[in-house]
Design brief:
This protein has about 290 residues and is an alpha+beta fold. The protein has 2 domains: about 120 residues, Aminotransferase class 4, branched-chain amino acid transferase, N-terminal domain (D-amino Acid Aminotransferase, Chain A, domain 1, 2-Layer Sandwich), CATH 3.30.470; about 160 residues, D-amino Acid Aminotransferase, subunit A, domain 2 (D-amino Acid Aminotransferase, Chain A, domain 2). The chain has 8 helices and 16 strands. Strands 7, 8, 9, 10, 11, 12, 13, 14 and 15 form a 9-stranded mixed β-sheet that branches. Strands 2-1-6-5-3-4-16 form a 7-stranded antiparallel β-sheet. A hairpin with a 2-residue loop joins β1 and β2. α6 packs across α8. The radius of gyration is 19 Å and the shape is globular. The two termini are about 20 Å apart. The model has no long low-confidence stretch (mean pLDDT about 95). Bound molecules: N-(5'-phosphopyridoxyl)-D-alanine (PDD). N-(5'-phosphopyridoxyl)-D-alanine binds next to α6 and β13.
Length: about 290
């Protein structure tokens, strides 16, 4: 249960934590966010997440609310105040509040910063990974800068809902050429029929996932063949394995794509191995 939330300099009780009615995050989705896993009381790959947070801010010219060191102090305090051992930290920065106007506010408008932490049942993703999940493909409805982690998530929310109605936990988006970009809230991977691990190269159509980067390190250390390139739906349907990566799920095997089984419909050996090895390569930092 979330008890305390940090909002603009104050630690508030959950029910009372609020932002201004004219916050630009609320009115324009003029905001970015990050999600960091907390495991055994430590942050996973925090440096990379904070660096991406700063990149997102820079791309949108939203001022940084504070230094990384100051932000880490707040994150640590929020984790402690909420007694989180295993779960996530969510942080969001908006361009601040002011009378609604498409024109950007004065440069000295203070950004809004919200930090919250939530305990999740340990082992939940592990249980799901034993079975694997289904995904549904559909055309990517999002904008041309998916490399920025904005809170403009409505297309992903609606797409994931459509997928869920058909029993799929995730959506895989297709670009106009029919290649898979990424998931609604994860990066997409396959192991081809030749045993090559493939994930799309970094470009503006995908988020540069932090988990993706760590999994690339794991794969290289294990001596796997890796290609960063687009792959299309038919290549995915013919693959030996498919899986997704994200901070909340690490490596999650995919066993069904659009109602068609991937290989024998059971989690693949490489996905399982990458999942097992993941935390040996992730960077843990104390809070
Ligand atoms: N989502 N692609 C998208 C569109 C995402 O939203 C995410 C993460 C990822 C994976 O990035 P990372 O490995 O850094 O978590 C890829 C977070 C978890 C979320 O929105 O909850």
């Amino acid at each position: 249960m979330t008890r305390i939330v940090y909002v603009n300099g104050a630690y508030k009780r959950y029910a009372e934590a609020a932002i201004h009615a004219e916050d630009r995050g609320f009115q324009f989705a003029d905001a970015i966010y990050e999600v960091i896993e907390v495991r055994d009381g430590k942050l996973v790959d925090a440096t990379q997440h904070l660096s991406r947070l700063n990149n997102s801010l820079a791309e949108l010219a939203i001022p940084r609310p504070m230094s990384d060191a100051a932000l880490r102090i707040i994150i640590a305090r929020v984790i402690r105040l909420n007694a989180v051992r295993n779960g996530v930290v969510y942080m969001q920065v908006t361009r601040g509040a002011g009378p609604r106007d498409f024109a950007l506010p004065p440069a000295d408008t203070p950004p809004t910063l919200v930090v919250l932490a939530r305990q999740l049942r340990a082992g939940m993703a592990d249980e799901r990974a034993l079975e694997g999940i289904a995904v549904k493909t559909m055309p990517d409805p999002r904008w041309a800068r998916c490399d920025i982690k904005t809170v403009m998530l409505l297309p992903a929310v609606l797409a994931k809902e459509e997928a869920r109605k058909e029993g799929a936990r995730e959506v895989w988006f297709l670009d106009p050429k029919g290649a898979i970009t990424e998931g609604g809230s994860s990066n997409a991977w396959i192991v081809t029929d030749k045993g090559v691990l493939v994930t799309r190269q970094l470009d503006p159509s995908i988020l540069p996932g932090v988990t993706r980067l760590t999994v690339l390190d794991v794969a290289k250390a294990l001596g796997l063949n890796v290609e960063e390139r687009p792959f299309n739906r038919s290549e995915a349907l013919a693959a030996q394995e498919a899986f997704l990566t994200s901070a909340t799920q690490t490596v999650m095997p995919i066993v069904k794509i659009d109602e068609k089984l991937v290989a024998d419909g059971r989690p693949g050996a490489i996905a399982k191995r990458l999942r097992r090895e993941f935390y040996r390569f992730a960077a843990f930092s104390g809070v």
